[in-house]
Amino acid sequence: METNYAVEMRNVTKTFGSTVANKNVSLTIKKGEILSLLGENGSGKTTIMNMLAGIYFPDSGQIFINGREESIRSPKDAFNLGIGMIHQHFKLVDIFTAAENIILGQAEGRLNKKAVRARIKEICDKYGFKIDLDKKVYNMSVSEKQTLEIIKVIYRGADILILDEPTAVLTPQETERLFNVIRNMKAAGKAVVIITHKLHEVLEISDRVTILRKGEYVGTVNTRDATEMMLTEMMVGKKVELNIDRKEPRNTVKRLEVRNLSCYNREGRLALDNISFTAMGGEILGIAGISGCGEKELLESIAGLQKTATGSVIFSDPSTGTDIELIGKSPRVIKNLGIALSFVPEDRLGMGLVGSMGMTENMMLRDYNKDGVVFVNKANPRHLAETIKEELGVVTPSINTPVSRLSGGNVQKVLVGREISSAPAVLMTAYAVRGLDINTSYSIYNLINEQKERGVAVLYVGEDLDVLLSLCDRILVLCGGKLSGIVDARTTTKEEIGLLMTKSGKTPETGEGKGETEDE
């Protein structure tokens, strides 16, 4: 039977123990369309697509591919039906070339390498991909790896493609190139699903938007009829204010000065190369760069967690008015000086929180052994835990429930809330809203702005350039461990930042300014 639907999912339910990830979800994906799948963190977006990709099997419900009911029990079943999923974490072999990754697992008998390369070139020409087939994966940028993943699934015959958060770590220029490729795939009749949190990208690229909330289907709207406010209300279930109230910096004083800072990462590679800048109290200094550009090593060097090779970090103590050299001091001493680090890595329990402890005990870790006091009163940490739970909407049976039992987003709320509440002189936060729903994200932005109003120097590492431009006063851009430039967030553009993220354009005199912005 001929049908315009590439995929129909009817009343699909999936549970994990007592947790209902999807409940009676029904949705359709048309041939030759781009469908955005939208929802808060934990709404079941990735789970429902994982069932289409054969990673999970539904407890109940039906899945139809091109009008025929199918039982998809493995990724191999999905591949045989022309379904390919590009995950946030790429499934590539680092020591292999692009061409070797594309044909991996596909070869039977002797390979005709000439014919294989001709087929790959045909795919690249048709959809607008640019890739060096002989380049090793470990030498590739994030954008190149993502391109390789898409080529790989198309080479294997995919007509239904699922992209999970495809623009999370791309520059604006890389995002636009990806969108052009996706539009070419749509024009060729392929069905494309994009799982994302970025509303402006949803409105730019998709034909329809399907919204999930708390594992259930809310509705599908035509993108041309949608607005950011409408989609947000459908996602959250109530009206949400989507404005960041950025005030001008007032009474700014130098709080932190970094001079000629260099360090090596754990693999022995130069991670920071001669970085110099100042951070002022009463302002938010954004830090932008492609993932792995040195942002993690920069914050950890300031916090005493990363051994430095050269350079100096001077902290101007507001309580004494003296300048203090931080290099060589322990993380505990630096923390007690009033320098807070809230870093949210992929492993959220890997830094700052103890998974076996509840919220109250994790609040106590901020004051443990402070000023020589080994034991602390539980009353204040308990009150703080209750406050964070209420204000940030932490979903937990109890403030005494081990945080390892909470979802990743809720663990993140505990960590960020604790660091912000510690009344620091310098607050360094990285990926503070990674994976959080829109409502909570804006609560975090408001809390960060409150710190700025108190005169705190805020260093904010973020992935969303729109947020960096709306929240920050200045933006420091890193590229390959080098300082590309420091720009005024009120006057620069995403395109200028994107160019600096991919090319070092530092002015040699001060390390500040827009740097080089011409395309190579």
How is this structure best described in words?
With 520 residues, this protein is α/β, with parallel strands linked by helices. The protein has 3 domains: 5-236, Rossmann fold (3-Layer(aba) Sandwich); 243-338 and 425-520, Rossmann fold (3-Layer(aba) Sandwich), CATH 3.40.50.300; 349-423, no CATH class. It is built from 16 helices and 20 strands. The protein has helices at residues 45-52, 75-80, 98-103, 113-127, 142-155, 172-187, 199-205, 228-236, 295-302, 331-336, 359-364, 379-391, 408-420, 438-453, 465-471, 494-502; strands at residues 5-16, 19-30, 34-39, 60-65, 68-70, 83-86, 160-164, 191-195, 208-213, 216-222, 253-264, 270-281, 284-288, 310-316, 323-325, 339-343, 426-430, 457-461, 474-479, 482-488. It has a 6-stranded mixed beta sheet, with helices on both faces. A 6-stranded mixed beta sheet has the order 16-17-18-13-19-20, with helices on both faces. Strands 2-1-4-5 form a 4-stranded antiparallel beta sheet, covered by helices on one side. Helix 12 packs across helix 13 (408-420) and helix 13 packs parallel to helix 14.
Overall CATH class of the largest domain: Alpha Beta
Q: What general form does the structure show?
A: globular
Rg, please? 24 Å
Strand order in space, largest sheet: 6-7-8-3-9-10
Helix-strand makeup class: alpha/beta
Secondary structure: helix percent: 25-40%
As residue ranges, the low-confidence spans are 371-376, 504-520
Counting copies of identical and different chains, the oligomeric state is single chain
Summed over residues and divided by their number, the pLDDT gives a mean of 85
Taken as a percent bin, the fraction of beta residues is: 25-35%
Distance linking N and C termini: 51 Å
The CATH superfamily of the largest domain is identified as P-loop containing nucleotide triphosphate hydrolases
In this structure, how is the largest beta sheet organized? 6 strands, mixed
